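Can't paste images in this forum, so I'm doing it all in text. The chain is below; anyone willing to post the predicted structure tokens underneath?
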Amino acid sequence: MRLRFSPMGWVSLATVLCTFQASADIEQQLAACAGKSDKLDRLVCYDNLAQSVKQVSPVAHIAAPVSKPAPVSSQAPAAAVVATPVVAAAPQSAEDKFGKVYKEEKEEIDKLYLTVKSVSKDPRGTLKISFENGQVWKQNDSRRFKVKAGETVYIETGALGSFLLGRDDSNSTIRVKRLD
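Text version of the structure:
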């Protein structure tokens, strides 16, 4: 007995084969992400994988069989992923990247000394501090901390991606978040 396929049958067969290949590829990428020891690197890896799976060509959805919902690990064929052009960004110094935890892959420095340009308070009393290098940081907790223009302070990495602002002559620190 010979099987005969219509042209649409061949397209369906090719789509199914690509889906199985994509499933294996995605599972390999998931395993690579799961193997990362650093939590932030692992999360970034999973986010990048999810983003690449979201960018599926509409043609792949039309040609794919619609018999049952696909499992989480085989969301789209690898051949249908739309390639986006990569634009090379201007290189940034470690000082420019400091504090942008979720926008950059990894921090290169743990502590940064900065000179205060100006300090302002909002109605709740939280500080907004501008520095000579153009960075702007905002207080992220309710502790009291005195800082004046012209002083040199440090910002260091804290637990779970937080940042602490303090002075070398004091044990007091406050949690801060980078605005710009």
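The chain has a mean pLDDT of 75. The beta strands are 111-121, 127-131, 136-139, 152-157, 163-166, 173-178.
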